[in-house]
Amino acid sequence: MQENGISAKQYATKVVGEVEKGTVGVVWAGKDASILRLLSWLLPQSVFDMVVQSVIPIAREMAKATRRKLA
């Protein structure tokens, strides 16, 4: 989790609100959602992936979990 990220309750409230409004497709919710949405539109996918990875190091954490599981 991000240190200054929104809480699970705030995230859920935003997502449920969007679904109840009838929003379809991607729902952008979170602390940096607006800037990431803009970057996803402006940048090539590979650059966008690097930006997201620098903010949320999920690939590294997934690799660690896989290594632990295989050990």
Give an overview in words.
It contains four helices and no strands. The chain is mainly alpha-helical. The longest helix has 13 residues. It has one domain.
Structural class: mainly alpha
The helix fraction, in percent, is: 55-70%
Shape: extended
Largest sheet: none
Order of helices and strands: HHHH
Radius of gyration, whole Å: 15 Å
In angstroms, what separates the terminal alpha carbons? 25 Å
Query: What is the arithmetic mean of pLDDT?
Result: 83
Count of DSSP H/I helices: 4
Percent strand:
under 5%
How many domains? 1
- Low-confidence stretches at least 5 residues in length (pLDDT < 50)? none
**What is the number of E strands?**
0
Key phrases:
mainly alpha; single chain; 71 residues
List the helices and strands and how they pair.
Layout: H1 8-20, H2 33-42, H3 45-55, H4 58-70
